[in-house]
Amino acid sequence: MFKRNNIIVFGSINTDISIKGQRLPKPGETLYAETISYSGGGKGANQAIAASRLNNHDSRIEMIGSIGDDIFSKNNLEKLKTEGISVQGIRTIPNTSNGTAVIFLDEESENYILIVEGANYKCNQTEIDYLSKIINNKSILLLQHEIPIKIIHQSMKIGYDKKALIILNPAPYMKIGIKDYYRNVSILTPNKIEAENISNIMINSIEDAYEAGKKIRSLGPLFVIITLGEKGCVLISDQGKVHIDTPKVNVVNSVGAGDCFNGALAIGIKNGLSIIESIKFANKSASISVSKGGVQESMPYFKEIINH
């Protein structure tokens, strides 16, 4: 339905510092944690890696963003190169730290995340100009909310004018003060919390999700996909509404599941799958990712999807 030739991911590049423990400490309390690890992260980089590992490599995934000049930044750039991602659109900013996310994972596998913006929030007209040069009507533009909102908005307008397909993952949720912000979005992919915030509708059932999706779609997106964790997701479009289940797995680490979903969704569409088949492909990919440890490390390869 939407078959395209290339995927451009414009977004954040972080270092994730992950800590696992029994629970978060109370104010004034000190607790011992079990483990600590360091890895590449950021929703943009995560989604680019998820897409690249599932790509058939008739074209490379293109990443646009900005990094600092610290050791974490250099490691992240090398990681993206190793994953086969084109990094020509990544700018190094002197005297700036890499974006950083501190992630706490409790004994119930729930995650809590704090983000330091770093170089991500220095994306500016330089990145916009680069995007304008490479995007066309055969492109999928994949965006998230970890770079400046004005830059995201500009990117969507450019993509729309060039007739690209635009997927916006509105994570983390931000209160948007820009009129008609969602108007140029082809596919919007909020999770339950983000959908509740955008729609002002509490989601306690599939029917609630349909209502929230209907209200969100009135803001402009052609398709709204609300992801609901183990309950799968709902799709709302002008053709109606549908609930799509996700495979049941033993959850080891849910961090990055949404990023895996979005990267895989873009690949499904690029390969000419229908929107529903693309969602099923994304659900399967995300279910594999949560059954592993790590974030970028957990993103599955195409052969894992086939064999699962």
Structure description:
The protein has helices at residues 43-54, 71-82, 125-134, 149-161, 192-199, 206-217, 257-270, 275-290, 302-307, and strands at residues 6-10, 14-20, 35-41, 62-67, 86-92, 99-105, 111-116, 139-144, 165-169, 187-188, 223-227, 233-237, 240-244. The protein has 308 residues and is α/β, with parallel strands linked by helices. The strands form 2 sheets. The protein has a 9-stranded mixed beta sheet, with helices on both faces. The chain has a 4-stranded mixed beta sheet with strand order 3-2-6-7. A hairpin with a 5-residue loop joins strand 6 and strand 7 (111-116). Helix 7 packs antiparallel against helix 8. The chain starts with 5 loop residues before the first strand and ends with a helix.
Count every helix, treating DSSP H or I runs of 4 or more residues as helices: 9
The CATH topology assignment is UDP-N-acetylmuramoyl-L-alanine:D-glutamate ligase
Helix fraction by DSSP (H/I, runs of at least 4): 25-40%
Radius of gyration: 18 Å
Number of strands: 13
Ends: how far apart?
A: 26 Å
The CATH architecture term is 3-Layer(aba) Sandwich
Query: So what's the overall shape?
Result: globular
Please identify which CATH superfamily we are dealing with: Ribokinase
What percentage of amino acids are in beta strands? 15-25%
Number of domains: 1
Q: What's the CATH class label?
A: Alpha Beta
Label the structural class: alpha/beta
Low-confidence stretches: none
What's the overall average pLDDT, rounded?
92
Biggest sheet architecture: 9 strands, mixed
Q: What is the N-to-C order of secondary-structure elements (H for helix, E for strand)?
A: EEEHEHEEEHEHEEHHEEEHHH
How is the largest sheet built, in terms of strand order?
5-4-1-8-9-10-11-12-13
